[in-house]
């Protein structure tokens, strides 16, 4: 329980900083640059998610096993895409179903409700699939080739002098 509280605290701090970036970039894109609400939210989420990966990998979940940048980042992008779709769904519902078009509606549905629901999903998903516990079977599978490479000499190529 103590580890969970510790992870949630760090995740919350990284998330708070990334939320501020998301909020500022989405409002800058939407209100000052005149981008549509869904495009503005997509741009801001990409920027915030990139910062989030760095913060979560290096700080929030740094005690968890590393299973390779390619694997982790690919899953991170997929899960953040799902989180983005949650936020866009909330924003699209407000805009195209309820016909709420103001900046307040944009922020309430896109940056509060959508990002809030997406954050709950991402915390659960990161722990389950991206930043694995050191005892997880995928960690052993990812580290096995590294251990095997350390034990066996590297073969020379044929014809090499």
Describe the protein.
By secondary structure, the protein is an all-alpha fold. The protein contains 5 helices and no strands. It has helices at residues 2-32, 37-60, 69-97, 103-130, 137-151. Helix 2 packs antiparallel against helix 3 and helix 3 packs antiparallel against helix 4 (103-130). The longest helix is centred in the first third of the chain and has 31 residues, at 2-32. The chain is elongated.
Which terms would index this structure?
single chain, disordered C terminus, mainly alpha, 161 residues, 5 helices
Strand content: under 5%
Helical element count? 5
- Structure class: mainly alpha
Total DSSP E strands: 0
Shape: elongated
Q: What distance separates the N and C termini?
A: 58 Å
Radius of gyration: 20 Å
Ordered list of secondary-structure elements with their pairings:
Blueprint: H1 2-32, H2 37-60, H3 69-97, H4 103-130, H5 137-151
Helix pairs in contact: 1-2, 1-4, 2-3, 3-4
Task: Briefly summarize what is shown.
With 161 residues, this protein is an all-alpha fold.
């Amino acid at each position: 329980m103590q580890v969970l509280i510790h992870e949630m605290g760090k995740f919350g701090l990284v998330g708070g900083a990334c939320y501020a970036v998301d909020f500022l970039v989405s409002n800058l894109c939407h209100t000052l640059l005149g981008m549509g609400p869904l495009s503005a939210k997509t741009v801001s989420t990409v920027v915030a998610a990139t910062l989030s990966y760095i913060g979560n990998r290096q700080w929030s979940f740094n005690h968890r096993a590393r299973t390779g940048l390619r694997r982790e980042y690919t899953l991170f992008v997929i899960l953040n895409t799902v989180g983005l779709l949650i936020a866009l769904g909330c924003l699209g519902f407000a805009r195209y179903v309820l016909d709420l078009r103001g900046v307040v509606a944009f922020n309430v549905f896109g940056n509060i409700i959508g990002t809030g629901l997406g954050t709950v999903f991402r915390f659960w998903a990161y722990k389950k699939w991206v930043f694995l516990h050191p005892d997880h079977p995928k960690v052993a599978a990812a580290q096995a080739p590294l251990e095997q490479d350390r034990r066996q000499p590297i073969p020379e190529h044929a014809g090499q002098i």
